[in-house]
Amino acid sequence: MQEVNPKETTRAYAYEMWMKAPMPMVTLIKTLDVTRLRHISRKRGLKFNMLMCWSIGKAASQIKEFYMLPVGDKLIRYDTIAVNTIVANSQGEVSSCDIPFSDDLACFNKDYLRLTRQVAETCENHDLTDSMVIGTSALAQYDIDGAVGMYSEVFNNPFMIWGAYRRRWFKTTLTVSFQFHHTQMDGAHAARFLNVLQKEISTV
């Protein structure tokens, strides 16, 4: 990771416009067809949440804007991406776990299982400060239509939230919300990411 001069990037105008905005976050909501993920999860014994996190990382790795993030008043370029998941820990609370993205699903699954188990047992967060982290929160036990994350002025990372998937006949859908800092990307980049995410989910 390294600090870059915003004026020497494609985000120069966005940096000037949105870095000091009182509310620079934008949220898009989209319903995804996750029929294939549910099928693979049941057939292969893989966690649905892990498959979602991997698909998110896979899609984000194809959008160059994900590798740059405003941190404080600086613009930082990262070489790697990680996906965060919230873990129910042994004390009945929740902890945060960053999982390094790997294009290899088996490798990502191995890291996911190892790190989430470690975090659940120790109740200590696992943070990757040298990667651009995409936050996620799965409210899998609840049927919700959408969610908008808060803006704390501390974390500018992109963030995704979803609830329970919905089964109808031969199709399973999942409504997700995607929040991002406008300095990092524009609405078109975010919409493209969601389209790529759908493609990755359908072809995993």
UniProtKB/TrEMBL annotation:
One of its GO terms (molecular function) is chloramphenicol O-acetyltransferase activity. Pfam families: CAT (PF00302). The lineage of its organism: Bacteria, Pseudomonadati, Bacteroidota, Bacteroidia, Bacteroidales. SMART domains: CAT. It comes from Duncaniella muris. Keywords: Transferase. InterPro entries: CAT-like_dom_sf, Cmp_AcTrfase. It comes from the Bacteria. This is Chloramphenicol acetyltransferase.
